[in-house]
Structure prediction request, 144 residues.
Amino acid sequence: MIQLLRSKSPNYEQCFLDIVNNSPLSISVKVLFKTAQELGKSLSVGAEQQLIPNSKLFNQAKNNWLVRVKKSTQENNLFQEIYLHLILHCLVEFNDNDYSVAHKTIDLMCKTEEGLAAFLKQFFAQKCSDYDHIFNYIEDSEKF
Prediction:
C-alpha cells in the first residue's frame, strides 16, 4: 500500500483516505504512522518523497482514524488488532500526547478477559527495555 501511495497515481489522496477509513486498524495505523513520521521530518524528507505531503489531508485521515478506534473500543473488538500497542501509541500521539484517552480505552478493553490477555500479551513479545512507554498507558496498575 505504501508503494502504491508513493507512486502518486492520480487518485493517491483518495486511496490514502480509503486505506485509513476502510482497512483494518492494524493496517491503517501503519500507513498513518508512516505519514505522520514523514510529515514531522519535512526538513529532511522532501515533499516529493513524503508518502502524503498534504498535512490537511493527513489531519482529516487522522481524525477519521481516531473515530474508528473509539468505535472499535466501544464495540469491544480493539483487542483483536495485531498492532494493538502501536494503535495505543498513535492514540496518545494523535491526541496531542494526552494519555487520558488511552487510559480510558485500556480500562474499557481490559474489563474483559480477552482484552486484558491481548494487552498483556505484548509484554511477553518485547524486551524489558521496551516497557517504559507502555507503562505510561496504564493509569492505575492496581486495576489489573
